[in-house]
Amino acid sequence: MLTYTIRRLVLSIPTLLFISVVIFLLLQLAPGDPMAQVPLTVPPEVKQKMREALGLGAPIHIQYWKWLVQFFWIEPQVFLDWATRESLLLGWLPDTAFAEGKLRVISWQTRSPVMDIVMQRMPQTLWVVGMSYIVGILIALPIGIYSAYKQYSLFDQAGTFVSMIGFSVPPFFSGVLVIVIFSVNLGWFPSIYDTTHVVTDWASFKVQLQQMIMPVMVLALQTTAQISRFMRASMLDNLNQDYVRTARAKGLKESAVVLVHVLRNSMIPIITVIALGIPSIFGGAIITETLFKVNGIGQLLLTALFANDLPMVMTLTFIFAILIVLFNLIADVLYGILDPRIRYD
User: Coiled-coil stretches, from where to where (predicted)?
Assistant: First the structure.
């Protein structure tokens, strides 16, 4: 397993490089000019200097190489500087500055480092989208397990109905619907997510929960619908296997048969669904974040696309690609943990 993991990590390097080239070339074909928002009163020579500072005057391969060096070499040094500053408080490491004076990936829209903006937006996305994913999984797994065990029962039919709603109703409709019902008519929850809110005590924590409930509800509905159907189908496939009948014939308790033998084998395809869905957490939910005014990664990507901010779009999409490759590898490794019969030679 260790050899397989190392081999996959090595093979992921050319894969990610190829993905970065494709993303960069596609973004270069995008219409628009980042200097279009500059006021007309700015002299042409000043605009030209601004274009050179943004790297717009260099050939495409030079721009790509500069971005590659900045992303893989300079940005890790910035992280090391941050980690060093934190460790100085504990007296662990000497004061160093690896990235001091080096040019980082700069957003064309805000003229500030891209990764700084991403790290500012990431907590909001993890609070809302990450929590909705966890809630969706915790609800979906029991529903899928019990629906399969009680196939064609009233509970199974109700779960199927809810899943159909989750698949059919888009977030831009369900989001507006919950705002109208719970915010406008009932006045229970705020319709706008306050990203400046800081949790300091129990009262502020309750306020945070209140503003999270509606966006989490909208996103968790989709997660629950998808994973519960996969869980149900996988459980049904394993409940009819010979080893289940053998376990029952040996006199094992029904709870042990279902929750130990059947559930463990049924989780193998579910691991893929869950693992490949985790990158979407960091990608944010563009529609939901826009509806509830959550300043997360999804809303950041949307504004960067509208502003033709290529460094921001390039960095965010490449981060998503890294996460997809990484969690795909994690899913493959978990297969071997859940099922000892699976071995990678």
Answer: none
